[in-house]
Fold this protein.
Amino acid sequence: MNEVAEADRFGLTADQKKLSKSIMKTDDICDYYADKGVKLTVRSLDDETVLIEGTAEALSFLGKVLLAHAEEKEDGRLLSHNSSGQIFFTEKSTLGIYIHRIPCEETE
């Protein structure tokens, strides 16, 4: 199945289809979604579980950031509820997200 048919199958918008055709840099993804007002709630659900909650579009944003980060040179990316990336978090958020790809250059 080609990419367009796959995107149509999942009911993606034209903008989402453009994003799905190639892996973008995390900064590009953040810039794109910043204007859309997507928000995640990230908080502790209990002593052993982290809740990541959001609309389908907000969760899609996070998924794209994770996929893009896997291909980037830097090994770490912070999205925080109280600093870098705070635009993507609801007021209910008490935790941020630090994405760290291993092995990192420092340990090689």
Q: What stands out?
A: Strands lie at 40-46, 49-54, 76-79, 97-100. The chain has a mean pLDDT of 85. Residues 25-107 form one domain. Residues 23 and 71 are 8 Å apart (CA to CA).
